[in-house]
Design a protein that fits this description.
This protein is about 50% helix and about 10% strand. The chain is of the alpha/beta class. The chain folds into two domains: about 10-105 and about 225-235, 3-Layer(aba) Sandwich (Rossmann fold); about 110-220, Rossmann fold, CATH 3.40.50.1860.
Amino acid sequence: MNQKELTVGILGGMGPEATVDLMQRIITATPADDDADHIRMLVDNDPKVPSRIKALIEKTGESPGPYMAKMAQGLVKGGADFLVIPCNTAHKFYPDVAEAVSVPVVNLLELAATTINHHFPDIKKVGLLASTAVQMTELYVPAFARYETTPIFPSADMQEKVMTLIKAVKAKNQTPEMIDDLNQAADDLRQQGAGCLLIACTELSVISTVLKTELPVFDAAQILAEHVVEKVKGKSN
């Protein structure tokens, strides 16, 4: 067993199932013949992180930033060599986390934009399936601006339905009609000129297999999982 391998720390709980989904993606992407070949993950799967929706959309809740900073410090104290934040929306508070620790914190927004540009450097519009908070805060705009690419969202009524689905996945009560809405939102983005889609919400990553579209699809959760494996192992499955 290689004692020098890096240990990843995961700021989880946003939401809990999405955190487990990321862990499974990391395990699946890891080249391994035995238990000892897998990656050590330190996970704070804490669903008590203050609501990103209440803080950013409803503007009635406290900032999750200080809470996330303490989570990060706990993971580093436990032995994490670098940190990841699976939740796209929570990257609004990325500076709180990065400033609280001395180890690297992966920026998923920049990672996803770079990955898409690597595969499709000529695409100028990327359709985002994400929380309305990501749209309101223009979280992905700076990351894509580096490549002269614009992130776009479904039309207002479609985006509202996407948000309804995200909340339903958290509550485990999504319906077939909501899945149809997701696919209609994807088609709406295609009609707006999106060259590819990015699933930029971990709740949607959990149900990503239901997405039906003619466009190339990237999943931020999968991008992050493969990055973790490559960072630790130098390669992935």
